[in-house]
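Input chain follows. Return structure tokens only.
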Amino acid sequence: MAVSPWNRHDCYFRHVMSRAADAATELRPWVSKEVAARLRWDELELVPGSFVSHELQSRCTDILYRTRYDDREAYLYLLLEHQSSSDPLMALRLAEYQIAFWRRWLKDNPNAHSVPMVFPVVLFCDPSGGHWTAPLDLSEVIDPDDASRAFLADYLPRWRYVVDDLSTVDVDALLARDLAPAVATLFFLLKVAPRKPRLGLDDLHPIMRYLRVLAQGGGGELEAALTYILSMGDTDRTDLEPVVDQLGPEAKEALMTTADRLEAKGRAEGRAETLLEQLALRFGPIPASIADRVHNSSIAQLRQWTARVLTADTLAKVFE
């Protein structure tokens, strides 16, 4: 099974934004100056897990950080919207995700009489250039008629979020932000890669200074960027060789390793799809648990299972 575009965005986004110091360069400008001054940015701690509902994981990815607001526990919630149009019910979705978080928090703090503050930020980038148009407050999603809204104001919940709409920011303005190199690279590629079938030196020239920092810093940051580039569109290693030639020997090694890994993964995905087709023809619909197992197996294991398809008389015997 080929990796879907949203999954590529998800993996790359999580890799970059799971580094607290880098994520802080994106989150800090989106809270008010008064709030930013009272949040302890040096204490950001990544909270594992996701609060996005299963049916919406194909369009949203979330990251949650714990810190303190003065002497109180507080959280910053960053959600990447993958889709090519803004979600008109995002205010309601975010309310659901925050309530899901608070419910989990209360299980760990059963004697609490209040819950911590959560600051939500939505990151949006429509590859076609469309802008975010959805309501930014839960009260705007609820639908009284205009004449009634004024005297119903006390009954309308206020639950506001902010949006960083990369579609409204040109490349020069984006790269002028005070972002960590990995974050600037991520945002640039989110804007450019989905619209450009092949990326080469001319296309990546605006972020060469960031790629150079990633190459020198290690930690898998350059590999993550190369993985995303090679996974999107038709870019291959030959397109990127002039890029890494300017970045040094570490970058050349990273490109070779990344390209080889992706090619091996592509071969494994092709074998997995073929095996699942053979299993379905022989045994009928395949359970999701079996499909997941097949997609997460090595080529050697896939070869072994494929050899058993013609002789096994049950699905279970294929996987013995």
